[in-house]
Amino acid sequence: MADDKDFQTKVQRIGELVGGLEEIADAESRASAKALVQLLLDLHATGLERALEVVAKNEDCGQRIIDDLGRDPLVSSLLVLYGLHPLDFETRVAQAVEKVLSQVRKGGGELELLGIKDGTVRLHLEVTGHACGSTGKTLKKLVEDAIYEAAPDVGQLMIEGIEEPAGSSGFVPLGKLGGVIAPAAVQES
Prior knowledge:
The chain is mainly alpha-helical. The protein has two domains: 4-86; 89-171, 2-Layer Sandwich (GMP Synthetase, Chain A, domain 3), CATH 3.30.300.130. The chain contains six helices and three strands. It has a three-stranded mixed beta sheet, covered by helices on one side. Helix 2 crosses helix 3 and helix 5 (89-106) packs antiparallel against helix 6 (134-150). It is globular and about 60 Å long.
């Protein structure tokens, strides 16, 4: 079975390659390469949507299976990419915050979801008590990982309260992987 780290490495590499398409000098070749990527994404989206429709037809356990797929980090990312995740963006973010909250508190911090608007998630993270200097960075990384895992389609993640030099997390938003994929609703029978 593929591991999540290998999957994330592949997603990041795909993002780099798709971004590199803009560097193709020949406009016709660039357009053809982009069209190929979009057609592959569309093909996969159609197949995944059909698979979820078939699963949803099983009245006994279909929705439970779809929900389980939505909780799997690897499959969840694919479902988000194709607009097929059973939970909306806001719910996934709120659940991620709730899930990581106890770990943040154990690590000497407090976390609050300030808002979600247009793909931007705003959080407030504060180190409480007498913690060492690296605690803030550790907690911030913990929160970032939880949000990116639950909502890889986040456009921007703003964590207030912890000051840290700007840097690259290596996270590639799913929207950078190609054209816009219209969300498709899973038909339940």
